[in-house]
Specification:
The protein is rod-shaped. It contains 8 helices and 28 strands. The protein is α+β, with helices and mostly antiparallel strands and about 525 residues long. Among the domains are: about 130 residues, Pleckstrin-homology domain (PH domain)/Phosphotyrosine-binding domain (PTB) (PH-domain like, Roll); about 100 residues, Pleckstrin-homology domain (PH domain)/Phosphotyrosine-binding domain (PTB) (PH-domain like, Roll), CATH 2.30.29. β1 and β2 form a beta hairpin.
């Protein structure tokens, strides 16, 4: 199914926006711009059209103009009146820039100069025009067909308001002139939407933020293709339109990602399947403590969590990852949701409390992945639905990896002895001597009643003895304590999920919000 609609393309350099038409299919987003095309007859110059208008006693030239050099835009035809001189030629269109009037070049003329020239050009006026494909939106040119002839333009002209040239001007001819009708063999022209840019959506990414900042664009976003080609900033007339288009494009990108995953999984063993992948923004701390964001492509595949700067396209690309972490040793955490149904936020808005939110980050839909040695990665996605998918995918990938691995053993020490600590999906926790392999103690997952650590290398695990009901404290020292704690968390969560899957679903923060939303 194809979705179409009118939007604006915003140019950050000139700060102008102009009308475009969007065409969205399952695989491609096409940007179309209006242009005048020759549909029949020999077209001497496709770009420039020269038209002779005969001024009529009633209705004059039958057009209005806007713009001028003082606004850094050419003078353009802003209205064409039905059944009057300009329309009868069949060769003039709203949006045509006037280049010459009776042989005089007016490309750099002011609005007033062009009005004066046209009003005093006599009964026959020859104008050369060229369609202005990127007419700034401040000119507010209608996209439609000629309007009714009753126009109440004032005699005073202004570059951003229509100057009516359906007024008679200085006409010397009192007899009604013959209409400016097209001659049989003259070329015929039509205004059409033409494809200007096509952006493939496979592995494309969307950004609603001004590059690298926390500044959210108002009702606007850009789409970037895998090869870096950008649509430019697409601006919408309402927040609803912007949200609809954002959702539609995100859905198509997600569907294509799913197809890519299925293709990739055909070449992978059952234990090395891609669970989920997609674009996110990663927050990078700048040297001056400013927050910079960079696009990153994440993937959950087999036993690993991958971070890429560009998506893996071939099998060989998987070794190019910037970072690879074992899924048992990472911890996924949702940071913040700003949603319409957030009671706290709604109450504040209702009470008119517009305090500056003193939050570590101005972006909604954030999550972090905590990894070994106390480090973590902080990410942000564009939509709440994406956050829910990442949360569920991380859970699934971690649980699968725990069940596949079955157990993980870490070297540790206590009071000078080198020990081994095993987390086992079936047995729970076991500690044994690394040399003699003698088991020192063993407890089930259900016996773990608490833990505390020094944030560096030492951890105290509190177990309940099943016979005495007393709490036994076991103290151990690890090289990478964070990885071990994450592993314990992963195994316990996977154990709970295997016994009570509904419980895990009930813990999903993002999905709770998604359903209530």
């Amino acid at each position: 199914q194809t979705k179409t609609g009118i939007a604006l393309l915003y140019d950050e350099v000139s700060e102008n926006a102009y009308d475009i038409r969007l065409k969205l299919t399952k695989e491609v987003l096409t940007i179309q711009k209006q242009d005048v095309v020759c549909v029949s007859g020999s077209d001497h110059s496709a770009n420039h059209r020269t038209v002779t208008l005969r001024r009529q006693p009633v209705g004059g030239l039958g057009l209005s103009i806007k713009g001028g050099a003082e606004h850094k835009v050419p003078v353009v035809i802003s209205k064409i009146f039905k059944d009057q001189a300009a329309e009868q030629t069949g060769m003039l269109f709203i949006g045509d820039a006037i280049i010459q009037v009776n042989g005089i070049n007016v490309e750099n003329a002011t609005h007033e100069e062009v009005v004066h020239l046209l009003r005093n050009a006599g009964d026959e006026v020859t104008i050369t025009v060229q369609y202005l494909r990127e007419a700034p939106s401040f000119l507010k040119l209608p996209l439609g067909s000629p309007g009714p002839s009753s126009d109440h333009s004032s005699g005073t002209s202004s570059p951003l308001f229509d100057s009516g040239l359906h007024l008679n001007g200085n006409s010397t001819n009192t007899a009604p002139s013959s209409p400016s009708s097209p001659i049989a063999n003259e070329p015929k022209y039509e205004k059409r939407w033409l494809d200007a840019l096509s952006v493939p959506l496979s592995m494309a990414r969307i950004s609603r933020y001004k590059t690298g900042t926390d500044k959210l664009r108002s009702n606007a976003f850009e789409v970037l293709a895998l090869d870096g080609v950008s649509t430019g900033i697409l601006q919408f007339y309402t927040a609803q339109e912007s949200a609809d288009w954002l959702r539609a494009m995100s859905t198509n990108i997600s569907d294509l990602t799913l197809q890519n995953m299925k293709m990739a999984n055909k070449c992978c063993s059952p234990s090395d399947q891609v669970i989920h992948m997609g674009w996110v923004n990663e927050r990078l701390e700048g040297t001056d403590s400013s927050q910079l964001y960079k696009f990153k492509f994440l993937a959950l595949k087999g036993s690993s969590f991958y971070i890429f700067s560009t998506p893996p396209v071939s099998t060989l690309d998987w070794v190019r990852a910037e970072k690879i972490y074992n899924l048992c040793e990472v911890l996924f955490k949702i940071h913040k949701l700003w949603l319409a149904d957030d009671c706290w936020l709604q109450a504040n808005l209702y009470l008119g409390i517009h305090q500056d939110f003193d939050l570590e980050d101005q972006r909604p839909y954030c999550f972090s992945v905590m990894v070994g040695h106390g480090k973590s990665h902080y990410f942000n996605v564009e939509l709440g639905s994406e956050l829910a998918v990442w949360e569920k995918s991380f859970q699934r990938a971690i649980f699968l990896e725990v069940q596949r691995t079955g157990s993980k053993t870490y070297m540790c020490s206590w009071q000078g002895d080198t020990l081994c600590f095993t987390v086992d999906f079936a047995l729970g926790f076991t500690c044994f001597d690394s040399k003699t392999k003698n088991v020192l103690w063993r407890f089930k997952f259900s016996q773990l009643k608490g833990s505390s650590d020094d944030g560096k290398t030492r951890v105290k695990l509190l177990f309940q003895n099943l016979d005495t009901k007393q709490i036994e404290t076991k103290e151990l020292e690890f090289q990478d304590l964070t990885a071990v704690l994450h592993c314990i968390h992963s195994f316990i969560a996977a154990k709970v999920a295997s016994v009570d899957p509904v419980f895990i679903d009930s813990q999903s923060i993002a999905r709770k919000y998604m359903y209530s939303n």
